[in-house]
Each structure stands twice: as structure tokens, then as C-alpha cells.
Amino acid sequence: MAASPPGLTAAPGPLISRTAPAPVSSRGRGSRLLALDGLRLVAALMVCLYHYAGRGGTVSASWHGSPAHLFPSLSRAAVYGNFGVQFFFVISGFVICMSSWGRTPGDFLRSRVARLYPAYWVALFLVTGASLALPVVVHPVRLDEFLVNLTMLQQPMGATRVLGVCWTLWVEVRFYVLFALLVVLRGVNHRRVVLFACIWTVAAVLCRSSGNDLLNQVVMPDYAPFFIGGLALYLVHRFGSDLLAWGIVGMSWLLAQSEATRGLWHPHPHRDPYVVLLIVTVAFAAVAAVALGWARWASWSWLATAGALTYPFYLVHEHLGWFVIRVLHRGLGLPAWPTLVVTVLGMLVLAWLIHRFVERPLGPRLKRALKARKLASSSPRRGF
Fold it and tell me: For residue 269, how many C-alpha atoms fall within 13 Å in the half-sphere facing its CB?
């Protein structure tokens, strides 16, 4: 969700040298991996349906009843929607590896900051404003906690989250830091990505028995297999199939299905472990289809727009959606199904507005400002 750059340019084909920059094929020049944009939207909609129709708690108060009773058929599927987050992580591993190839650490940092923060800040203000206007849905946080939320580091700081979904951003940020320090800093190439994937896999497995909270925070054994699988699938996409890359993918899938089943199925009595296994398998298979070029048929131009909306939609849909549901369903008496459809469409429209009027103008400006600061600091001083 948060792991995709503004442009998903198709990567070059197989190489003879796996350390030199890859030549771009004439057929793939300038084309986008539009199928990835579509997959990102699918993952976001999965999470959205989970928050609206697959869980209880605050959303039940907005519906004035359990979503399982209002949407008996939809709810049985929506309880699995939170696996869209793991789907995002596989896509993120693929996209971050792709977008970092040939970039300096500074370029990588600037692209991540410019991509993540503008829409995130707007979402914070929107949700906080809604909580002040209608605190019966979500209580506003204290000013000091809101200010910490601006950093995107509220979770390790122990502050209350303004956005319920932002815990995934903290996971993404830790992945970016690991990849930047261990791979991007020395230059991304096939060997370093493979070593990183193998070492991270072993560290994640060993971390399970360490009982060390700091190691768990750094290594992220719950989520590492999903990111690693995406990294290896990008190697397949860029260099072609080989046993080593597919071995990493296979190992990651085996560990990922175990993590998903243990962490997300067992606490929920209405989930089937075989369905969990199927969802994880489909997530890996879908990104593998993109890696192998089997999804070139998905060339509709609207997929690029869908991909651009994914991140702002993901940020605003949960809490703001609960506000809309309460106003439409409990306040205005709109039936449940029309309320659900209008809320999802409304969040997509809001996401488009954020993308059009926040991300598109501010993201490039922020990136240029960060680069200009670097150039200014490196210029020789004159005079005293």
C-alpha cells in the first residue's frame, strides 16, 4: 500500500551480468506493470471490506448492529479481508526492489519520504477533524499524541494512533530501513538482494525462539517472508527464472503460510485455515504471474489510476468510512447495502482528490526540496 512509487515502470529482461545495469527491451520501454496497480487495489479493497463488514467493535456501533447480521454472506468472506495487508507486503517487496535498482541511498530516501508523507499528513488532519466533529465514533487524541503521529513513529513511541491502519506503515518503514542499510547503501544488484533475502530468512526463523523484543522489532519474523517473497519474485522478473530465486520464493511461501495461519487464523473462530492457506498462495501466485509476464494482458489505462488511489484510499477508508456509515445508516436511515456501496465509492473519490491535489503537486516538490537541500549543503562556501 505504502510501498509503491509513483511510476511502476516495467523492469528489464534477463541479463548476462547480474551486477551491471540491465538493458531495457524495446517492447518494454516505458511500459508500466499495470497488473501490479490492479493487485494493489484488490488488496486495499480486501482490507476495506474487512473494516466495514468483516469485524465488530467500532464499526458495529456505526452500523448499530453486527455486520455479520447485516451482511451474512458478505461477512463470511470479509472476515478474511485483513489478509490484504500480507498481500500488500508481497507486492511491496517486489516494487521496492524494482524502484531502488540503480538509485543512490539519497534517491531512495527522498522517494520514500515524498511518497509516504504528504497523503499521510492530510489523512491525519481529516480523521482528527472528523473525530472532533463526531467523537461518538472515534475519540480525538491528545495534542501531544497527534504531534507524534506526524512523524509516523507513534507506534514505537507508545502514542495513540490517529489512523488505525498506520501500524502497517511502521512495518513498511522498518523494511525500507533494513533494505536501505543492507542493500541500497552499497548498490542494489542480484547478489546483494539474494544475500539479504537469505540472511533475513534465517534471522526471522531464529528470532522466533529468541524472546528478544528488540530483535523482533528489527527482524519482523511475522512479516519478513512476505517481503522476501516479493524481493525474490522481482529477481525472477528482472533476470529470468532460476532455481535459487524460486527456492527463495518457495521457502518464503512456506514460512508465510505458517505465519498467516498461526497469527491470523487461530485467534478468529470463523476463519478456516485452509482458506487462509489459499489466500496466501493466491497472493504469491498473483505477483508471480506479474513477474513471469503472464499478466501483460492487463493493459487497461485505468489501472494506473487505480494504483495511484490505493495509498490514500488505504489511509482514509477505515475511520472516515465509519463516520460516513454512522451518518448515512444511523443518521439518515439509508439501508445497509446502499450505505456500504456509497461509503466505498466516497472513499475512492476522496482518495482521488488527495492524489490529485496533494500527492501529485506536493510529492515532486518535496523530493526536489530535499534534493536542493543536499546540493546546497555540498556547495563550496565562499568568503568567511
Answer: 0
Establish how many alpha carbons lie within 13 A of residue 140's alpha carbon, considering only the half-sphere containing its beta carbon: 17
Read off the pLDDT of each residue in 171-176 and give the average, rounded to a whole number: 97
CA gap 333, 337 in Å, rounded = 12
Neighbours of 240 (CB within 10 A): 13
Q: What span, in angstroms and rounded, lies between the C-alpha atoms of 354 and 316?
A: 10
Cβ atoms of 129 and 146 within 8 Å: the answer is: no
At position 79, the amino acid (one-letter code) is V
- Closest by Cα among 54, 11, 18, 16 to 32: 11
Query: Closest Cα partner for 308 from 243, 352, 344?
Result: 352
Q: Directed axis angle between helix 336-354 and helix 105-133, to 10°?
A: 140
- List pLDDT tens digits, range 208-220: 888 788 899 999 9
Q: Which residues pair with 32 in a beta bridge?
A: 9
CB 315 within 8 A of CB 120: yes
Handedness of CA 141, 142, 148, 154 (dihedral sign): negative
Task: Quote the pTM value.
Answer: 0.89
Backbone angles phi, psi at 14, to 5 degrees: -60, 155
SS3 call for 247: helix
What b/e sequence results for 155-173 when a residue is b if at least 16 CB atoms lie within 10 Å of its CB, and e otherwise? beeebebbbebbebbbbbb
CA nearest neighbour of 249 among 193, 176, 183, 175: 193
Pick from 13, 39, 10, 4: which is nearest to 286 by CA?
Answer: 39
**Closest C-alpha to 183, from 204, 207, 202, 199:** 199
Cell of 13: 529482461
Q: What is the mean pLDDT of the segment spanning 346-353?
A: 98
Q: DSSP letter for 21, please.
A: P
For residue 232, the one-letter residue type is: A
Closest to 159 measured CA to CA, from 124, 110, 122: 124
Instruction: Show Cβ contacts of residue 250 under 8 Å, excluding neighbours closer than 6 positions.
Output: none
